[in-house]
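Per-record layout

source: Erythrobacter neustonensis
name: Band 7 domain-containing protein
length: 298
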Amino acid sequence: MNTNASAALNRSRETAASTQSGYVMLLVSLVLILIAGAAFFVGVGGKSVPLIAVAVLSGIVGLLILAGFYMINPNEAAAIQLFGAYKGTDRKEGLRWVLPWLTRSKIAVRANNVISEKIKVNDARGNPIEMAAQVVWRVTDTAQALYDVDDYRQFVTAQMEAAVRAIGSRYPYDDIEHHEITLRGNHEEVGVELRAALIDRLSVAGITVDECGLTHLAYAPEIASAMLRRQQAEAVIAARAKLVEGAVSMVEMALNMLSEKNVVELDDERRAAMVSNLMVVLCAEQEAQPVVNAGSLY
């Protein structure tokens, strides 16, 4: 995130709201309504103005209390406002109550699982690839989620795409020699870096990321066949190089053992011929056909 832009933003901070248990206030409301009803009938029967006034006042207060009730489900919170001013967040479950003129904005704080759309990115080597990510996120600061961004769910989607693009352009898709971190070969490292990037980007909205990773990774269709042929060629070259390396070490060992045990004396020409024959036998794709020499060695 841009540090200057973040510093300019007037960030909200979640605080605990001053609320009451709804069950206690429900009892108070019912008592007031009963008092209002009893006082009204007694006042009307006895033509007592004070009792009628008490009945009207008790009824009004009882009805006002009823307007302040709201429910909070598990893993849910309610942000309280007074004429637009943030007055805190209530996270206590069950029946709750606040003053009727305070507004309540409910927000879920449970975990959300989102899979992004497939997006096309150029990797570190300029190859077009397709990527998609899965992210498990949740709201940790309700005030920031509600008041610091316009729509926190759309904000998560936009930042997911931006983070995936940034990670995709930072690393190559693949490296046959395994000398550097790649998107295909280092899922854990890439996932850790993607999670750190998302946490940093989403912190302005009071959101954290519990888990994330790539769900789709492939070359773009327009180069997929060409890149497949290149991967096959690189694999063949790597296999050949490994085969030649092993063959050379085996030939060297054979020559050293023949020399150490004085099995046969070879001049440079015969040594070169033996090396050539052994390399052919060891590196050939098909089985070598032996030729029996019935004459002398030379």
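summary: The first strand starts at residue 20 and ends at 21. Residues 112-219 form a domain with the Tetrahydropterin Synthase; Chain A fold (CATH 3.30.479.30).
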